[in-house]
TrEMBL record:
The keyword ATP-binding applies. This is ABC transporter ATP-binding protein. SMART domains: AAA. InterPro entries: AAA+_ATPase, ABC_transporter-like_ATP-bd, ABC_transporter-like_CS, ABC_transporter_ATP-bind, P-loop_NTPase. Coiled coil: none annotated. Residues 12-28 have a biased composition (Low complexity). It holds the Pfam family ABC_tran. It comes from Frankia nepalensis. The keyword Lyase does not apply. Residues 1-31 are annotated as: Disordered.
Length: 287
């Protein structure tokens, strides 16, 4: 895999006109080269006698450029699925691959954003973003260029030299997104990244992440508890049953790719789709 420093493209390489990539469809059959391929994955945790079945026979094909939102009752295995794709855990059974290559551990082709920004307080915002490239052994000038491009993409150029604790929660989360983008990932894995933010900041960052997605062409897999957020952001919404998580809903809402976003949340199509997903989740959660 080429190093991000060798990639001559600026981070926003797909921009030109900045419309979001067309959503690709979910496909039943495993295809080589899908951005993310999860095939027959079941996940168990714990030891004999106290084993916990987190995921049951989950298969999911995600095409390059999709923005897929994962939703489901608490404890259904959404984070587990993200962790499997990130390479933080290995599946008990089944396989996980990115671009046709089996996932055997974490890699720069997958950037991860968590609910908490997890920035190092003793490093400047720029140094936080440049940390991945630094650990990858990149030259100082290259890592500075990459960090500055990523920070520009999330609108944080002005605060690059400040320590993270001087930034608001929303700005810190944008820095965490920039850090994940620093490795020029093919896939951005986001685990409830806006859950800890106030409502207004959350809405701002939703539009921000769509802008970043359109600008980079990165495939996004986004875990959320909010049906509204899943429908607003996703080109595709995938819902899981209660634990052990199984895929019980997988549809292209397409709303994440809509460029006319003003009043989108109150449009009849949006409301109808959102209500359908709500019903699926309510039933899955047993209520
Ligand atoms: N490393 C682990 N060791 C043991 N059990 C785990 C581990 N990771 C997850 N689990 C268990 O697997 C199940 C699924 O957890 P997971 O965090 O993936 O669910 P989730 O859908 O993301 O939940 P939530 O929406 O509440 O964040 C839970 O019962 C959890 O306790």
């Amino acid at each position: 895999m080429p190093s991000p420093a060798d990639d001559p493209r600026p981070l926003g390489h797909a921009v030109a006109g900045a419309t979001a990539p067309a959503p690709a469809g979910p496909s039943g059959e495993a295809r080589r080269g899908a951005a993310v391929s999860v095939t027959g994955v079941s996940q168990w945790f714990g030891r004999r006698g106290a084993r916990r079945h987190a995921l049951d026979d989950v298969s999911l094909e995600i095409e390059a450029g999709e923005f897929v939102c994962l939703i489901g009752p608490s404890g259904c295995g959404k984070s587990t699925l993200l962790n499997l794709v990130a390479g933080f855990v290995a599946p008990t059974t089944g396989t996980v691959a990115t671009d046709g290559a089996p996932v055997t551990g974490p890699g720069a082709d997958r950037g991860v954003v968590f609910q908490q920004p997890r920035l190092f307080p003793w490093l400047s915002v720029r140094s936080n973003v440049a940390l991945g490239p630094r650990l990858a052994g990149m030259r100082r000038a290259d890592r500075r260029r990459i960090a500055d491009e990523a920070l520009a993409l999330v609108g944080l150029s002005d605060v690059a030299d400040r320590p993270p604790y001087e930034l608001s929660g929303g700005m810190q989360q944008r820095a965490a997104i920039a850090r994940a983008l620093g490795g020029r990932p093919r896939v951005l894995l986001m685990d409830e990244p806006f859950a800890a933010l106030d409502a207004l900041t959350r809405e701002r960052l939703q539009d921000e992440i769509l802008r970043v997605w359109a600008a980079t062409g990165t495939t996004v897999v986004f875990v959320t508890h909010s049906v509204e957020e899943a429908v607003y952001l996703g080109t595709r919404v995938v819902a899981f049953s209660a634990r052990p998580g199984r895929v019980i809903f997988d549809e292209l809402g397409g709303f994440g790719a809509r460029t006319d976003r003003e009043d989108l949340r109150s449009e009849p199509d949006f409301v109808t789709f959102r209500d359908r997903v709500h019903r699926v989740i309510r039933t899955a959660a047993g209520g």
